[in-house]
User: Fold these one by one.
Assistant:
Number 1:
Amino acid sequence: MGLLSQGSPLGWEDTKRYADHVRKHGIVQFLNIYNKVKERQKDVLKWGDEVEYMLMAVDEENEKVQLVLRGSEVLQTLQEKGEKINPNHPTLWRPEYGSYMIEGTPGQPYGGNMSDFNTVEDNMGKRRREALSVLKENETLGTITSFPRLGCPGFTLPECEPTPVERGASKSLFFPDEAINRHPRFSTLTRNIRHRRGEKVVINVPIFKDQSTPSPFVETFPGDDGESVRAALPDHIYMDAMGFGMGNCCLQVTFQACSISEARYLYDQLATICPIVMALSAASPFYRGYVSDIDCRWGVISASVDDRTREERGLEPLKNNKFRIHKSRYDSIDSYLSSCGEKYNDIELTKDEEINKQLLDAGIDKLLAQHIAHLFIRDPLSLFMEKINLDDENESDHFENIQSTNWQTMRFKPPPPNSDIGWRVEFRPMEVQLTDFENSAYVVFIVLLTRVILSYKLDFLIPLSKVDENMKVAQKRNAVLEGMFYFRKDIFKGSNPVIDGASATPNGLENSDNGGSSLEEYTLMSIDTIINGKEGVFQGLIPILNCYLANMEVDVDTRCTILNYLKLIKKRASGELMTMAKWMREFVAKHPQYKQDSVITDKINYDLLLKCNRIAKGEEGCPELIGDPVSRNK
Ligand code: GLU
Ligand code: MG
């Protein structure tokens, strides 16, 4: 989850005092990087995935699964056995927000060879086995987007009491500070977000109203001083801590582009794909022990780190703050970066005018300048005393400070100073899947899509306001089958300069109009249409990928693996296979202890997670969720 500095973190008042200093030097650091590497060309396509894991303990006697707060210990063991003794170790492990979380990536990035697609699942399997091998007998690890009973009494091992009234980081009624990673970055972020905002964060998720769910659904909060009761909405599951969001897991992919302009092109194109793939990957229907009416974590995390003051949120006139800010720091992107995207930049972009001017004066073009000037409307959230005065030529911590706490659907990443790393983009909306097979499928799908975007010079751009509307739809229950999404009708007619000399349409399917205005470049489509195509409406991404694959030289084994992955995506989109969200909902609905009251008891949670564990370890199949793939991890 970003930059880790060692040392003594400053409190909010001190951090605030240095905010302009951080921004000023952050911009200088960005300019130094930019000027050194703006002309870099011909970096090769490299990419990597990031998987976030939860550590769980199984209490057979009490039929309970808890989150184990041993992330730091486990992480240290994994690093000592891995990267610390072998620079070529195949896995890398990093901390994550929860003290029950760890994050794993491949040891080296993947490259441009098609056969690399055949190694992703093996590497994820290695990671899973490696982590499992250092756990205790009653412990396991899972790739679960949202732990169903996160924030319920006794959800951690050891059990810890939340501390709403004492001096804590979260002051949550539900989420104890012990569940926050012990590295000071994480509690500092938590505390400073709360201080900056001026109150606890507020997360309200609509509850799924089942037959016996109380209506209206209203909770009482023992220990509350009144703040929570005021913040909680009726018929919603109320949560009050950063951990309810950043304590969730996801699946991310980062690509190195061959040049800055290719990175900007990919950033824009993939931004339109974010809501689609998020709905396709939906895996988080339960919050704080209740069945919710949403399927994805996105809005929960967004609210969990929303550090905007009342003025910035538009609830009070601006007096002490500079800007009215429309979104949380964790949200969808606000502007396209490529020249092709300019005309689709139709949402209001709050930017720091001074910084914008400074960047323009330094020769940065308008689109890139406004992107950076927009990220830099934010204050730093954590600052370490030892890291205030930096060498702007050779360090980039101040730039990274702001950049890495803008958690958007896409991230545009300049190279670190003095490295041979190129310009990169990160794809961030996906929910993590239960098995390595599924996670590999989503990763390979996205990476293949980037190849196809680049080879066929595709253009998915639609007005950004429409992408934002798609983001809202994508999180709703069963959006994958019921949601309608704005999508571009003719993706072979782009206007990007990079697109000049575009290849011919791979399959001659002509697009006709879907009943909407024929003047619009986009129309509403289902995920099935977008992914699998529909005659007369849209070619479908999978048919395009298949066409690309048919023209590529790929060894038989790799081709077979890729086709298996694409089949999963295809069937999830058509509804032939369930999303994790839907599958979990059905499991709970059918559980003998479930009382149709939207409550997930410890026992339901236990049975669900034990089943998940068996499926993830390959001890049990799950045809309704993943079909019948031939496992690559024999
Ligand atoms: N866990 C966060 C999520 O689910 C992402 C944290 C990160 O940026 O690594 O989106
Ligand atoms: Mg992470």
Note: The pocket of glutamic acid (ligand 1) is lined by residues 1, 52, 246, 248-250, 297, 301, 407 (CB under 6 Å).
Number 2:
Amino acid sequence: MAKKIAVLVSGGGTNLQALIDAQGSVLNSGKITLVVANNANAYALERAKKAGIDTAVVLKKECGSQEAFETKLMEILDGNGIDIIILAGFMTILTERFTSHYPKRILNVHPSLIPAFCGAGYYGLRVHEEALKYGVKVTGATVHFVNEIPDGGEIIAQKAVYIEDGDTPEILQRRVMEQAEWILLPQAAEKVCADLGHL
Ligand code: GAR
């Protein structure tokens, strides 16, 4: 039976869209049954609703503390029988209390070749700004398991993307998404769900 996937989002949700679009082709061993946002205005919520996927919003501010925020997330995820959690542009760090509850069951997509340009403070456009500032000629994306170390869990898949003359952080972000993230994330999700099915 297909594994139940929850996708956690904060913003535009293009990676969520890639996962939705991959269902029935690349992604067969898992099914997205829930999308959770930590931002009520996340466009990703619209994408989920259009695809007929249940949504939930959990605001850290309303929970009052990191611990209460994570407890609420766990209640929702466990209450929905979720097998695999995918962080797709989820812009908040999760502590060991949360990550150790789902060993090898949380995936994250990061827009660089880890261990370059990763860890606390490296997220979204900032990652591409730093890659351009450093002057690397190759960057890319990484999908990895999530543990208590930010961007420090076991790597599942990586794909390189060349930097080109005239790149701005925005242009590079788009190329990394098109050439790496949107391809890699559904493939990695399929692999993890399929492997889980064989346990
Ligand atoms: C993506 O580039 C994702 O890799 C990055 O944020 C963007 C979200 O875009 N995530 C991180 O930087 C996490 N450290 P999306 O909402 O359109 O998928």
Note: The mean pLDDT is 97.
Number 3:
Amino acid sequence: MIIAIDGPAASGKSVTAKKVADKLDFLHLNTGLMYRAVTLHFINSGVNINNETDILSGLKKMSILFDSMDSNKILLNGQDVSKIIRNKLIDSKVSEVSAIRSVREKLVVQQREIAKNNDIVIEGRDIGSYVFPNADFKFFLTADINVRAKRRYEQKKIKDVSLNNVLFDLKQRDKYDKNRKYSPLVISDDAIVIDTSDLNIEEQVNKIVKIINKER
Ligand code: DC
């Protein structure tokens, strides 16, 4: 069974998806980590993201794997990069890298392969709309932009970064993710939309699990 959870940055997707997967005893796949890992790989190997030949050769030299015991642990070319890919530099570049068609094509093949013959909760931006249009359940998490900014601010607490900076960055990322040419962030017609602005994690997890258990 495939459960797709999509939504914008800081909508509570990641923690919700992981908890839903744990409750159902399903695998969990955070596709955002994959786009972040590619971004780091391109920075480290000096790939010029405006040059397709450079991009393709960079992609060829890249391996992305998840730790089989911990779905939030991602290995880039054999190295655990789980922490570094959440930093500010990656935050500022990942939307641009994830808008590249050949990057998306490569990662989508891998995402479909990981999900093959598995019960899995997959989270991202285009899971219900593109990667798994026939997913058994599609959820789309939203939340008020100010609530999202506050959550992200409290989560990161980075020195010298104000709540206003975080709000600005989120708005930029939303704009980029929604307006890119390939697989933009959209709400599928058949997705169940959950506004998490006034929900805590426990409440949103329970809401999703209840819907799944009622219908499966
Ligand atoms: O969920 P996140 O913030 O870690 O995702 C990082 C970036 O990756 C986000 O700006 C958009 C991109 N992304 C994507 O384009 N498609 C996905 N399925 C998941 C993430």
Note: The longest strand covers residues 70-76.
